[in-house]
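Cross-check.
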Amino acid sequence: MTKARTLADNFAADINGITAGTGITGGGTSGTVTVTNSMATAIDAKGDLVVGTGADTFSRLAVASTAGYLLSVDSSTATGLKWAAPSGASFVGASAYRSTTLSLTADTVVIVTYANESYDTSGFHSTSADTSRMTVPSGKAGKYLCIANMFATGGSSRMIIYPYKNGSNVGGSPNWSYVIDNRGYGNAGAMTGSWVMDLAETDYVEVGLYSATNTATLQESTFQFIYLGA
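Predicted model, tokenized:
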């Protein structure tokens, strides 16, 4: 025989109260019960963010007031985040040059030295020791663009710019992109060589200049060494 349900039985089987949990407000035990998502009410404008501030806590991070700002980590703020202007990439590199002429030896690659600098952001070059070298310092391993500009006079045969790495000639693909020998006017003219190298810390790069005749003279030269990134 089935037991008749009492009022107490019916009450126990029904929902008889709503309690607000984390992130919810409102609730009640009778009548019309309203609950509200308090995360939603924290938002005041388009682009606002709701950000955790600790265990089971959160706060509103207002949208950036300036277009183009980026969201970055900042432990000093209440939310641990902040809007900030993007930082521009800083140029890293060196440019060295010669102020004296250099006589070239016939059928020989001569390593060009550079006793002067236009700029050097990170100690790549020295004007007093090993002046031919651009050396990768600590923390700057990666890819480098090397550009050598030459102006030479004399000679009747071709000249070639060669890249050197750690004392060894590494000319040819893929280390250089082009070399121009343009000595057509009075056997004088400009040459440019450029190449990209993947270098480790303490690696060094030099510029070698080959001439087929010993009557040639290097009048001017610059060597640029530009960090492209890791």
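The mean pLDDT is 84. The first strand starts at residue 18 and ends at 19. Passed to J.P. for a second look.
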